[in-house]
Amino acid sequence: MNDWLVFGGSVRGPDHEREHLPCQDAWARGPAGSHGVALCLCDGAGSASHAELGARVVSAAVVEALQDLHADGPAALAEALRAACVAGRQALVREASAVAMSPAALACTLVAVVSAGDLVAVAHVGDGAVVGQRAGSGELIMLSGPDRGEYVNETWFVSSASWEARLRIDVHTRIDALCVVTDGCQDACLVQGGAPAPFAPFFAPIFAFAAEVDDANLAGGEVTQLLDGAALRTSSGDDKTLAVARRRASS
Amino acid sequence: MSALVDRVRVNDNNREPRQPLVLLVDTSGSMEADLPDVAAGLADLRTALVLDPVARNRVELVVITFGGMVTVHGDFGEAAVFEPPTLSASGDTPMAAALTQALDLLEAKKLAYKASGLDYYRPLIFLLTDGEPTDLARWPEAVRRVRDAERERKLVVMAVGTASAGFTKLRELAPDRPPLRVKEARWTTMFQWLSRSLQARSRSRPGDEVPLEDPTGPHGWGTLPS
């Protein structure tokens, strides 16, 4: 049995409903080796004509590349995650060629997480965020924050030729649970400013909920209900994706 | 166990990102005939922005006039509290000094945003004039600063000339964004266009491109000067 329970949801934002645009977020999850877990969230660029395709292809390819993970130690885990991101980027370029478009037409951000034993590695290009819960203390930790240009409507995409210069990979230990969000959730769940911080009244109930549930499908339904609820719809008109992974109690 | 949606609290204290705008208005003597229309356009712009629930808190603007001297009117603040100044025509056209002042104000504004942790969109400078600068000694330096700022994506400068304006100097400002001539004093149409552009920009999300709506179409307010 896998050591982690993973659940989440993805909804189209009110702005995209009004503009008859599809949900341009996508996410994927899967096993990483015999006990670990991999998940990847991608947020398609509003200005890209095939953004939802890019997001779907990249998230699926990253998770697939991690399914046979054998990584011994933090450096090997970071390297495996980097290789998975390269595989995601290659899938985007391949798909763009298949539909006779430039990679920029499939532009999307990338946040990927993989676990191996006590280690959790996070890879990130662009905005979105990963918040972790420290084992034992329950402290909320910003594992990876949004990265963007000087202006609020600019960010970085995995489709860009210089994407590797914006790729951040960090390895963490002693993480019991983590929550990954796309940009549409950021205003609602972070305290914005110079260095964004997790908004505890948002994340603490999510981690408490994660500790109580065992059925990933039912829990995912509740996430969808949260993302499509009045408070989050008011907070942002953008598409929203939120995924949670929590370590199962060792038996 | 209550539903997740009822347990999670959303942070509604994050402050809105800002879209700064400097309106540079030529109030030299020769603008006398156009100023009533420009003033009416500014009043319309104010109304449109105040009525927009997003733009009213996100757009921050200030008017700088240049006619005989350069004057900054009021605070560089939210559209919700913007009061258009009274415009009166007199004197020569210190356009270089006005542009320099606009660049300095925007640099200071960005520093203030950063200091208080506010996010912002790329600033806009909107220049309305009927002619050519008279402070020619300062002009080359002003042009260099504007072009450097545009190349470094620090801001967007848009120059608009009246029906009788000369465009030789204006063209030097932004080689990639030619100045436009206002058709038949369609100032009202132009200000409506500006308020729509600001509303669209102030709503854009990461990854959105916000091209300015083409003002040179059949129903637009501008033409490319020949």
Task: Describe this structure in a few short sentences.
Chain A has helices at residues 14-18, 51-65, 74-98, 163-166, 186-189, 200-212, 216-227, 230-235; strands at residues 4-11, 25-32, 36-43, 110-116, 119-125, 129-134, 140-144, 168-173, 175-181, 190-191, 197-198, 240-247. Chain A is built from eight helices and twelve strands.
Question: Keyphrases for this structure?
Answer:
heterodimer; A: 251 residues; alpha+beta; Phosphatase 2c, domain 1; 5-stranded antiparallel β-sheet; 12 strands; globular; B: 226 residues; alpha/beta; Rossmann fold; 7 helices; 7 strands
Q: How would you describe the overall organization of this protein?
A:
The complex is a heterodimer of chains A (251) and B (226). Chain A is α+β, with helices and mostly antiparallel strands. Chain A has a single domain, classed as PPM-type phosphatase domain (Phosphatase 2c, domain 1). Chain A has eight helices and twelve strands. A five-stranded antiparallel sheet of chain A has the order 1-12-9-6-7. Chain A has a five-stranded antiparallel sheet with strand order 2-3-4-5-8. The radius of gyration of chain A is 17 Å and the shape is globular. Chain B is α/β, with parallel strands linked by helices and 226 residues long. Helix content of chain B is 35%, strand content 19%. Chain B has a seven-stranded mixed sheet. In chain B, α6 links the parallel β5 and β6. The longest helix of chain B has 21 residues. Chain B is globular, with a radius of gyration of 19 Å. The model of chain B has no long low-confidence stretch (mean pLDDT 89). Chains A and B meet through α5, β10, α6, α7 and α8 of A and α1 of B.
